[in-house]
Amino acid sequence: MSNVTKATVATTILASAVLLSGCGLFTGEEKNKIDPPDVSLVDSPSKLEGDPVETTAEENKESEEASVKTELYLIDSSGYVVPQTLELPSTQGGGVAAQSLKYLVEDGPISNVLPSGFRAVLPAGTEVSVDIKDGTAVVDFSKEFKNYKKEDELKILQAVTWTLTQFDSVQTVKLKLNGTELKQMPVNGTPVQEGLSRASGINLDTSGVNDISQSKALTVYYIGGEEGNYYYVPITKRVNETDVDNVTAVVQELAKGPSHFSGLQSIVMSDVELLDEPQLADGMVTLNFNESILNSFKEKKVSQQVLDALVLSLTEQKGIERVELKVDGNADLLKEDGKPLSEPVSRPAKVNTGSF
């Protein structure tokens, strides 16, 4: 089979759905920016009744500031903890971090915006307060927090940690129950670390190693969902400690794909390889791939989904903020839409902003 045919067949299942829909999973801003909302809110009942009311530029600005895009880590129908970016109303007190956890409570405000096929992670009736100081978010749950199923225990830890650490002001998380610090979870006894962080991983997959103590964790992004509703799922895999550097290992795991029984898929072709060692400087990693990274050899195009998976996965590594791609040493590449891929790509501000 020719290289052109091979690339086309490999991307048809998932990429064609994206090309037809035109929907993106990311916002286009860098991480330290807040995206403006896509809709404005009604300011008063008078604007619902009678003749239309013209709004000033100042009123429009206030309306835009009345909501904020926020990643909520919810549980999908396959049991994975998955980020979903939703528009949440702005808060007058307690901050967006505290509000994000309130939207993780079953039968709470999430009920009105819960994506199809997802469920909240915290038990109904749970009340939450969050105090952030010196990079640590201290979360205090009410007694209703104990009313969860034991199989959800790790998912709760992951969802709370990853939801809060999306904010620049939070690096670690501590948990309390009715004012008392938790040393272990109340239902199944899972130990709670002194400071929970993303280093603990998410959707853990240990199937690739025999000795966990001689392995290291890497978080990569595969594709979950179904046609018309695909989304990115972070998976923390274990790879042998003595193997290649972390960047190369991430590329290899994307090409290798998820576990056969995971129900997930990878858009990166299995024969994608790096031709040189990754070069890391000033927060940017430069990667030189073979032609299998292209979804159009003739035009030297890189599919948006391949680019997304690479950037999401690589920027989970400490010190990597941007990704630069080359193919056979050539940086003259195109994006899927035909625009030049002339600049390094930064991690998007938010993940899974819409299905594809």
UniProtKB/TrEMBL annotation:
Region described as Disordered: spans on this chain: 34-65, 336-356
Xref: Pfam families: Germane
Superkingdom in the source lineage: Bacteria
InterPro entries noted in UniProt: GerMN
The GerMN domain, residue ranges: 97-186, 247-336
Coiled-coil annotated spans: none
Protein name, as recorded: GerMN domain-containing protein
